[in-house]
Amino acid sequence: MPRLTVEGVGTFEVPQGKRLVLALVDEAGVDQLHACGGRARCTTCRVEFVEGEPEQMTAAERETLQVRGLSGVRLSCQILCDRDMTVRVISRLEGSGRKDPGPRPADQLEPQPVQWVAKE
User: Residue 93 and residue 60: Cα distance in Å, rounded?
Assistant: First the structure.
């Protein structure tokens, strides 16, 4: 099982292939935002990688990051836990002014069909 380390929170074993956004919520107990429900539209689930960043991303993640002009961050809703990784959570419910983190993302990556591209 991959190990997920969340800065300032701890290290957790995560089921192979679980979406990072769900691992942050379920295993790490982080109040991670995911306003669009994990569909790579809102960027509220963004994290910074310290170690173990995947070399690929979904086409949906790349497009959303480009449109928003974001760099140095990744969308946790578009990443599968398939290796040990260390992340810094930068988008939490606490202090956001939102009433809830958003609808729970599905277990599988969305939007379908998932297309993998090289990380730029």
Answer: 23
Do the beta carbons of residue 24 and residue 17 sit within 8 Å?
no
Just give the CATH number of 3-96+107-118.
3.10.20.30
Q: pTM score, two decimals?
A: 0.97
Taking the chain (120 residues) in runs of 10, the rounded mean pLDDT of each run is: 97 98 98 97 97 97 97 98 98 95 97 92
- How far apart are the C-alpha atoms of 72 and 95, rounded to whole Å? 22
What separation in angstroms does the CA of 113 have from each of 38, 59, 75, 92?
Answer: 14, 10, 17, 28
How far is residue 97 from each of residues 13, 57, 79, 91, measured CA to CA in Å? Answer: 31, 29, 26, 12
Query: Quick one: pLDDT at residue 120?
Result: 73
Give me the residue spans of the domains in the chain. Answer: 3-96+107-118
